[in-house]
Design brief:
This protein is α/β, with parallel strands linked by helices. 23% of the residues lie in helices and 30% in strands. It has ten helices and 26 strands. The two termini are 36 Å apart. Bound molecules: alpha-L-arabinofuranose (AHR). The site of alpha-L-arabinofuranose has 10 residues, from loops.
């Protein structure tokens, strides 16, 4: 079916929060240890123990916010184990993830140092499942109190004079599951209690973030908003994309059949329905949309790479993941009135990682390139874009062939991101540029694969990489772009006098 799209360049629909491009890094597998932290004595080039190559790569995509220390690990983490001289820190087993030794060398000071290097906001997730109110309250005091107090003194003894600024603090993680197997009524009460002691010291104003629902557990959202909505600044949502319907057999990251290409994208598109339905419940209790929805875990989850520790969740990342990222961002943009932050799981070496490492080597995944291409949308204003496109069918099922969104920067530069989900056919999209006064200069960048599982390896790190896009024409106000199969395209339109 013919495609047709109209960009209404004069209809602005609100800001796309840069934090939608946030990340999540857990003490899981090789994310923190090896992926980020190598230690000061490592031969891998580092600054204060943190890998230089990874920091540089994350700065390039303008990482806005980083969530830590978990995940499930957060509700087993006792922050005092991770402060003070490193040689004296407790060694323990990471019981949740792979049963390996956790030496606590990466703790509060190291995380805050990492965020300073990245120039991003820290998002710290506190422990409700196995931690006390006092422990959480003292962590906030240690981090953010500048006056005379036991925790501020302890921080100074550990080498940090001034308090840090911490804007985002999560009160528990997945408390319906690994964070304590709680019922929503019980967690809502605990949330009210714990958040009371997550205090604002001095000028530091904390956004208190409550643990939200698993996928489509709308009752959880209903109960949390009803019982605790007024005590929170945000509520979370976790949704992972699994190609196959079973946790025992999720599907492989590479070498999959077309049916898994299709089912992966079909499932990723479900994010739209989930956000819509959770937001509708939130609207009932919070019509002014004061409380943000934070999708602080999202991405693909496949079977681990053969021969790797099943508890490490290490998977390859292909052009299919790039499509998942591109269409998911387009969904987040559409809901940017409610979705104020999202954090892909996870930054390095775990699940839908943007970076993979092997010893001193590092590669950028196709998902990384989408973050880089889409960074132009950070803090830009959403524009109205209607796309009337055909469907992409497989085995009697259908999904839209094109996913798209558009925004305009403060300088008036427009960006349109388009994903062609079809694994076989190129798609020609005639795009009417309505509401643009005068002529426009157009450039573009495209990311495409020559196979459904095209990916980068340490021997071929540039196999999937963005290229300049030239396959378009501009006649009058009709911009026609031809998207290759399996591709993500970002067009830049600069109004010209
Ligand atoms: O990201 C991996 C795990 O997925 C997180 O620890 C947990 O919150 C979720 O179940």
């Amino acid at each position: 079916m013919a495609q047709r799209a109209v960009l209404n360049a004069d209809i602005r629909k609100g800001k796309i929060d840069r934090n939608i491009y946030g990340h999540f890094s857990e003490h899981l597998g090789r994310c923190i240890y090896e992926g980020i932290w190598v230690g000061e004595d490592s031969p891998i080039p580092n600054t204060k123990g943190i890998r230089n190559d990874v920091v540089e790569a994350l700065k390039e995509i303008r990482i806005p916010v980083l969530r830590w220390p978990g995940g499930c690990f957060a509700d087993e983490y006792h922050w005092k184990d991770g402060i003070g001289p490193r040689e004296g820190r407790k060694r323990m087993i990471n019981t949740h993830w792979g049963g390996v030794v956790e030496n606590n060398h990466f703790g509060t000071h190291e995380f805050m140092e990492l965020c300073a290097m990245l120039e991003c906001e820290p998002y710290i997730n506190g422990n409700v499942g196995s931690g006390t109110v006092q422990e959480m309250s003292e962590w906030v005091e240690y981090l953010t109190f500048d006056g005379v107090s036991p925790m501020a003194e302890l921080r100074r003894e550990n080498g940090r004079e001034e308090a840090w600024a911490v804007k985002y603090f999560g009160v528990g993680n997945e408390n319906w599951g690994c964070g304590g197997n709680m019922r929503p009524e019980y967690y809502a009460d605990l949330y009210r209690r714990y958040q009371t002691y997550v205090r604002n010291y001095g000028d530091n104003k904390i956004h208190r973030i409550a643990c939200g629902a698993n996928v489509d557990d709308y009752n959880w959202t209903e109960v949390l908003m009803r019982e605790a909505g007024r005590f929170m600044d945000a509520l979370t949502l976790h949704y992972y994309t699994l190609p196959l319907p079973s946790w025992e057999n999720k599907g492989a990251a590479t070498g999959f059949a077309p049916a898994e290409w299709f089912s992966t994208l079909e499932k990723a598109l479900r994010m739209d329905e989930l956000i819509t339905r959770h937001s509708t419940i939130m609207d009932k209790y919070d019509p002014e949309k004061r409380v943000g929805l934070i999708v602080d875990e999202w991405g693909t989850w496949y079977d681990v790479e053969p021969g790797t520790n099943p508890g490490f969740l290490y998977q390859q990342n292909s052009i299919r993941d790039a499509l998942v990222a591109g269409l998911t961002f387009n969904i987040f943009h559409k809901h940017s009135d409610r979705v104020r932050m999202a954090n892909i799981a996870q930054t390095v070496n775990v699940l839908q990682a943007v970076i993979l490492t092997e010893g001193e080597k590092m590669l950028l995944t196709p998902t990384y390139h989408v973050f880089n291409m889409y960074k132009v949308h950070q803090d830009a204003e959403l524009l109205e874009l209607t796309v009337d496109c055909g469907n992409y069918s497989f085995d009697g099922r259908e999904i839209p062939e094109i996913s798209a969104s558009a925004s305009v920067t403060a300088e008036g530069v427009i960006h349109i991101s388009l994903c062609n989900l079809n694994h076989i056919a190129a798609v020609s999209v005639p795009l009417e540029l309505r509401g643009l006064a005068g002529k426009a200069g157009v450039t573009g960048t495209v990311l495409a694969g020559d196979a459904m599982d095209a990916h980068n390896t340490f021997s071929q790190p540039e196999n999937v990489a963005p290229k300049a896009f030239t396959d378009f024409t501009l006649e009058g106000d009709i911009l026609t772009a031809v998207l290759p199969p399996m591709s993500v395209l970002v067009l830049e339109i600069t109004p010209q006098a």
